[in-house]
Write a structure and sequence with these properties.
Number of helices: 3
Strand order of the largest sheet: 1-2-5-7-6
Number of domains: 1
Structural class: alpha+beta
CATH class: Alpha Beta
CATH superfamily: uncharacterized conserved protein from methanopyrus kandleri domain like
Strand content: 35-45%
Number of strands: 7
Order of helices and strands: EEEEHHEHEE
Length: 93
């Protein structure tokens, strides 16, 4: 999707869709409406991660992909109720 002139992707591991995460009063719903507009396979996920300007990622598999592609570092990963979240912003010169 386009967001303020940038290409933004929201990708969540399929097995997390439909779950509700709760931690310290914070509640996050990983809804089908937001995260499952399309089911994609790993090669296409890599393409999207390469092309996007902003990535909002949830889950072990997709975040491992981003780390393996050197788009982020482990220290940037946050966990909510044990589930990893990672946001990537690419700055272009």
């Amino acid at each position: 999707m386009r967001y303020q002139g940038s290409m933004m992707v929201d990708i969540c591991d399929i097995d997390l869709i439909g779950t509700k995460l709760e931690q310290n009063g914070l509640v996050v719903h990983l809804t089908k409406e937001y995260y499952q507009q399309e089911v994609i396979e790993q090669p296409y996920a890599r393409q999207l991660l390469q092309k996007c300007d902003i990535a909002n990622l949830v889950g072990n598999r997709i975040i491992k992909e981003a780390i393996d592609m050197k788009l982020a570092k482990e220290v940037s990963i946050r966990k909510i109720a044990g589930v990893p979240f990672l946001m990537i912003y690419k700055f272009h010169h």
